[in-house]
Amino acid sequence: MTALFALATSLLWGLADFGGGLLTRRMPALTVVVVSQSVAASVLGVVVLATGAWSEAGPRLWFAFAAGLVGPIALLSFYKALALGPMGVVSPLATLSVAVPLGVALVLGERPGLLQVAGIAVAVTGVVLAGGPQLRGAPVQRRAILLTLVAALGFGTVFALVAEASTTVTGLFLALFVQRVTNVVVGGTALGAAVRRGAPALPADGFPWRSLPALAFVGLADVAANGTYALAARHGPVTVAAVLASLYPVVTALAARGFLSERLRAIQAAGAGLALVGTLLLATG
Q1: How far apart, in whole angstroms, are the C-alpha atoms of residue 12 and residue 133?
Q2: ∠ CA(82), CA(192), CA(24), 5° rounding?
Q3: pLDDT tens digit sequence for 142-187
Q4: d(C-alpha 143, C-alpha 161), whole Å
Q5: What mean pLDDT do residues 73-102 have?
Q6: Which of 1, 234, 256, 267 minimizes the number of CB atoms within 10 Å of its CB?
Q7: How many C-beta atoms lie closer than 10 Å to residue 212's C-beta?
């Protein structure tokens, strides 16, 4: 079950990141974060009420609150980096986020087997190559790299916090709701401050209502990915869950190939193959 949930996380995150990066090219990144997370918070609020998840409230929700504080910073940095591009640089570098939950798991005493260690090495190498490294030192690319590193640290921290935020499925709904509400409050505050400084909150032609379904998808896919990751970390080794969940750049690259007709280079195809081999090693290790 760990492998299944973690791979579902990769699929959801990969599609959400692809959509978020495209939307940020048409509207401010903060607006994308606030609107998409508001939709997710609204849906989760209904789920919490319907399931009676409020009864699961307890000290563990502080982990969800902390994840909500960190999440907007990570999302904003990542969407800005994706908008600057190229996605072949940004997406693979974001896999460094796996270092945080892996480090936490090792500190807590988790020890992967030899086959799993090999799978981790092969999968991470494959993901990096799947992006088709193209670091050439241009100023904009250096900024994109810096933003991606900030996002990776933030994402890794969110992974670790969400995994600790609940012990039951209904508790997970409540934890994700608290996280998303915090996301909206933090992101909305930052957006308001940006507007007061003169930055636009919307495109010149007003709110892009046609993009609302895409914004909703990004928010819901992101929250669903957090949920499946928490379930993956609960059902098996965090070291395995974290690495398999970090395969989302392969999904982003394939989405760019399918929707934007970006051609996969040989190094990207080889990387995707290595990522698959690493996944099989982790799943069977």
Answers
A1: 23
A2: 15
A3: 777 788 888 888 888 988 898 888 888 888 999 999 999 999 999 8
A4: 27
A5: 74
A6: 1
A7: 13
Closest of 145, 38, 41, 131 to residue 91, by C-alpha: 131
Model confidence pLDDT, tens digit, residues 247-282: 777 787 778 777 766 565 676 667 667 766 766 666
Q: What angle do CA 62, 67, 72 make, to 5 degrees?
A: 140
Nearest to 147 by CA among 92, 252, 76: 76
Q: What are phi and psi of 207, to 5 degrees?
A: -65, 130
What's 134's DSSP letter?
-
Closest CA to 33 of 157, 151, 174: 151
Structure tokens at 246: 């970090």
Residues in the chain: 285
Alpha helices, DSSP H, located in 197-236:
212-235
Which residue is associated with the tokens 């990207």?
Answer: 268
- pLDDT at 135 (0 to 100): 47
- Match 């996002």 to its residue by tokens: 151
In 3D, which of 216, 218, 189, 191 has the Cα closest to residue 202?
A: 191
Residue type at position 65: F
Q: What is the DSSP letter of 259?
A: H
Task: Please state, in angstroms and as integers, the Cα–Cα distance from residue 55 to each residue in 49, 51, 174, 178, following that order.
Answer: 10, 9, 9, 14
Task: Name residue 118's amino acid.
Answer: A
Q: Is the dihedral of CA 233, 10, 101, 169 positive or negative?
A: negative
SS3 of residue 222 by DSSP: helix
- Note whether 83 and 25 are within 8 A (CB): yes
- Torsion on CA atoms 134, 137, 139, 141, rounded to nearest 10: 20
Cα separation, 76 vs 34, whole angstroms: 10
